[in-house]
Design goal:
The structure holds 2 protein chains of 2 kinds. By secondary structure, chain A is mainly alpha-helical. Chain A is 77% helix and 0% strand. The longest helix of chain A has 63 residues. Chain A is flat. Chain B has 14 helices and 11 strands. The two termini of chain B are 42 Å apart. The longest helix of chain B has 21 residues. The chains are: A mainly alpha, B alpha/beta.
Chain lengths: 448, 331
Amino acid sequence: MNLRKNLENGLKRFSHRDTLIQMVNRVILYFGGAICFYLILWGINRFFPLFFLGKEFFTLISLVSTGLAIGITFLRRKTLFEVARFIDKKSKLKERISTAWEFSSKKKDIFVPFLLRDALSKLQEIKTSSVFPYYFPSQSKYLFYALIVIFLFLSLSHFPFLYMRKRRVYLYQQVNTLKSISRELLEQGKRENLKSVTLFVPRLEELSEKTERGEIGPEELLKAYEYLREEMKAKIEEKKRELLQKLNSLLQREKQESSFKDKLQEAIEAIKKEEYKRAGELLRESSLSREKKELKELESLSKAQEELERDSRYLSNRVKKEVKDQKENFRGIAEKDNQKEEFLSTEIKSFGGVSPYSPLSSKEKGKEGVPPEAKQEGSLSKVEGEKEDTLLMSLVEELFLPDSPLGLKEREAFSSYRRFMINKIFEEKIPADYKERVKEYFTSLEPK
Amino acid sequence: MEINNEKIKRFQRDIERIRKELAKVIVGQKQIIEGIIIAILSNGHVLLEGVPGLGKTLLIKSLSQTMDLKFSRIQFTPDLMPADILGTNILMQGEDGRRFFKFQEGPIFAQIILADEINRATPKTQSALLEAMQEQKVTVAGVTRPLGRPFFVLATQNPLEMEGVYPLPEAQIDRFFFKLKIDYPDYEELQQIVGQTTVGELPLLEKIIDGEELCQIQSLVRKVLIASHVLKYATRLTMGTHPDSKFATPQIRRFVRYGASPRGAQTLVLAGKALAFMENRFNVSFSDIREVALPSLRHRILLNFEGEAEGVDIDKMIEDLIKVTPEREDG
């Protein structure tokens, strides 16, 4: 019996190591798979927003994959007989261990004790690491390939033809914020029966849906944010004023206990400082149910307002950054064109000919004022009519002004202008039938 | 029978000593010596195929010396009758003048028998020997007489001569535990043989075990342990010799008419046990089965006409089968 027990313990030593290695490798593979899966979803999300993505989702799939890896390892772990066979094969023990394990419970056979002793002595000589050495899972190379493919796929989003899609991703955070604010307000409003809070819900939802559908651009969204914030602020101020009046009148009543009065006073001060939560806590034990409800309304609205403000700040920064990048981009293009032009004019001069482009330097050109092509057929005036809502349009306008400090040349200005317009064609809501005509129009403006 | 570790070790040492003793007179032929010892330990008989003059008689004689067993040699000829092997009742006269029959034992009443050129005798005589081998007893004139224990027959047949021979039928061949093929010695071995046998007399061999001990070893060998997966492997290997088996190789499917009988599987396992015992182990391994597969199966596979016509090598076919048969049942 002892021999069998010893053999079992010896085999378990190997089995534990094997299980551990299998588990580590499975966790590597499954967790790697989960990362790939998440990255794929993240990539898809850049084109088709997936609202469940986020830290929580990543934590969930990580936990599920790790749990699966551990669970499958335990379900598929080798039996002691299989471990014994593996040891026999790896250590060339001529089936000693497996036979010993199989016959260990059969006492009748003469050779069993001899074989068990023999097997045990051999088993003690073997290191677990020699039978089950650690190896990196060979399948991990597929994970590596998958990651490369995913990164290539993700880099596609940098191509201009995907610009429109990219913009949708760009506003994805705002859509999420709006949805989360409206959800929170709705839940709280329903729970506490706060009418003024629920009033904002349909508007927030509408705004988020429009943004999601791409009907609203960043500039419009910023305006909508501003409007909503103002409205919320006004509502908060109104509520605050009413509440303070009520509380002050309560405070002036002589019948009240001094301790209650103290608390009331403190609550009034907290409301003035916009610490609605603290005020609510101070009045928690009082019988002022209406006032407590109003405090909750104030708390929800101020929280929503803060969130809107934070998101609005973020969006505004992004828009500014985009404008700055665009400017730098234009400048880069202009410089390149300048160099090309100067090179060509020098070449032509050396042949004694005339350049098809203006041989003047960019400064001289700047003095010339509006480029001849721009004057033709009132082309720019048409564009100017649409500029009011677009921040980037102001940049174009700036580029074409004769007194612009940038002082770009006709061709530079046109190339930047064309690039901007092509982006606009993809970006803005232009009816499909008109797209070609708009393109043709701008092509006709191109300097010959 | 009291069996302890010491006794087992002694038996295993004795077998090793027998090998060494035989090596004093037999140069090379290690596989043949090992095959014969395995067959004796498994209580089986050996069919030895080889040309004359390769030391078969010397080998068997030497073996009988080391084991202290009664040896007899029967030269098979076409006119050899069963009674010449088994013995016969002869008419005797007693001191009182009365006549009576007395059984005169034939050469089969020995413990180690060399049946030389067995395929020269008629089938009737061959079957008399083979029945005695199988039953380990003979019946003459209605009286059954047991043969000595242990009982071992080494039959030889000459593969070169085709005329005037009576090839053993398949059913008879199946009764042999092993079929061993003895080849010419190589250059160095032949030099050593000539040098050893032309100077003085052959060395006298030491008696290492007796018949009773050999019987004890034989019963111990049967108790050597074989794990289920090794047993399954032996079964798969035997099944693989059948042309309609899923374990068979394409060559076997094409050229074999009949595969090895269940006796073939029994031989594989028993021989494996004997080999393991000889190698101081208490269990059979896959390699034991592989090692004894050729002598155990080669005479149990019957080629079809196409196989015969193509001159298919059965040994090669078995080697291929060993290569493709996996140790694990699931492959």
